[in-house]
Design brief:
The protein is α+β, with helices and mostly antiparallel strands and 357 residues long. It has helices at 39-42, 44-74, 82-113, 131-148, 154-167, 169-174, 192-197, 243-250; strands at residues 207-209, 226-231, 252-256, 276-280, 292-294, 299-301, 308-310, 316-319, 331-333, 339-341. The longest helix is centred in the N-terminal third of the chain and has 32 residues, at 82-113. It is elongated and about 95 Å long. 24% of the residues are buried. Residues 1-10 have low confidence and may be disordered.
Length: 357
């Protein structure tokens, strides 16, 4: 039987033999349980106390954000001091944690104790772009504003806005540490071209194993091997003397192939020794360490974004987002058979950037 009302009861239903079904009185909607008033609904003083708690938490969040920025400046990681680095991480972390925790707790307490908690039913209806729908939307926003008190409780509103805005400030301030800054003692520190153009490598400097600083004899480099290499003076530097900063620029990967496998230009024929070549280990995409060597294909792989470089052809890019080959370190052998650098790299190491010509 067809009915105009899809929810109408089908009284034509026949129960199986021996089973009686009463279809005369369908189940009724029991409705909502009685509303329980909160303390803040019954006591104006409790409501004001809750409001003070909320905006106090929001202002506490604001203070946490300000403290995180202040800690970033009070304990600069650029100083190189391990104490400053520890305090920088500790106090910035505490400031950001306080800012986000107080903001979250304040928002939850606001919704639990102050906003209207009366139950209501929202019936579904077709969504259409009519004027009545727009008017209903405006009324809904007005009702939400009235129930939450956002428009009339200025202290809560203003403290919330201030806390939300301030919560992103520590993150913005931390971007400052991503780039070095020029100083009177180091005027090129803010120039990435000059900063990455020169490393510790110099003429006659021995290649040594990372990290123990053992000099490397050419005869000891096995065919198909890949050795991580640092300049000899670097192993004598302490961490307080810029060891990590210098190593990040000067780290090299030493590889030995058959001499006939190298496809060298006339300019670079003297940069290798008996099939041994040295390339910067710093990827020219975003600076990740290139350390995966495929012995059979002679490809170097960057694990971060899958750039690949061909060792046999001056480490040219054959796949991935890297924009240029890995810089090559010219090498030779001294009178004792140890591998040495002929000079520094002939181009900046590290990521490509728009300032580089």
């Amino acid at each position: 039987m067809a009915h105009d009302d899809p929810h109408a009861l089908d009284r034509s239903y026949q129960a199986p033999a021996g089973l009686s079904v009463d279809v005369s009185d369908p189940a009724q909607n029991p409705g909502l349980p009685p509303h329980r008033e909160r303390i803040t609904d019954e006591d104006p003083k409790a409501m004001e106390t809750a409001a003070r708690t909320v905006y106090t938490l929001f202002y506490l969040s604001l203070a946490g954000s300000i403290w995180a920025v202040a800690a970033y400046m009070l304990f600069p990681i650029e100083s190189g001091s391990l104490v400053d680095v520890r305090y920088n991480n500790l106090f910035i972390g505490l400031g950001i944690a306080l800012a986000l925790l107080a903001l979250g707790v304040g928002a939850i307490h606001w919704s639990k104790a102050i906003m209207s908690d009366k139950e209501h039913i929202e019936y579904r209806h077709p969504t259409r772009g009519r004027d009545s729908v727009r008017e209903a939307s405006i009324q809904a926003f007005a009702a939400a504003n009235e129930e939450s008190g956002f428009g009339r409780r200025k202290m809560i509103r203003n403290s919330l806005i201030a806390a939300v805005i301030a919560s992103v400030v520590p993150g913005l301030a931390l971007f400052r540490g991503l780039a070095p800054h020029s100083t009177a003692a180091n005027p090129i520190a803010g120039d990435p071209v000059q900063l990455l153009k020169h490393t510790m490598w110099d003429k006659g400097m021995r290649l040594t194993r990372d990290p123990d600083g053992t000099p490397i004899r050419a005869a000891d480099v096995v065919l198909g091997s890949a050795v991580h290499v640092i300049p000899e003076p670097l192993s004598k530097l302490g961490h307080e003397d810029g060891y990590l900063e210098e190593k990040a620029k000067a780290i090299v990967l030493l590889i030995r192939l058959l001499p006939e496998q190298l496809k060298e230009s006339a300019e670079r024929k003297a940069w290798s020794y008996n099939g041994i070549v040295a390339y910067s280990k710093v990827c020219t995409h975003v600076g990740c360490p290139v350390a995966l060597y495929e012995q059979q294909t002679h490809h170097l792989l960057c694990p971060c974004h899958q750039s690949q470089f061909d060792v046999t052809e001056a480490a040219k890019v054959i796949f991935g987002p890297a924009a240029r080959p890995l810089p090559q370190l010219p090498i030779a052998v001294d009178d004792e058979g140890y591998l040495i650098a002929q000079s520094d790299f002939h181009e900046p190491v590290g990521p490509s950037f728009w300032e580089r010509h």
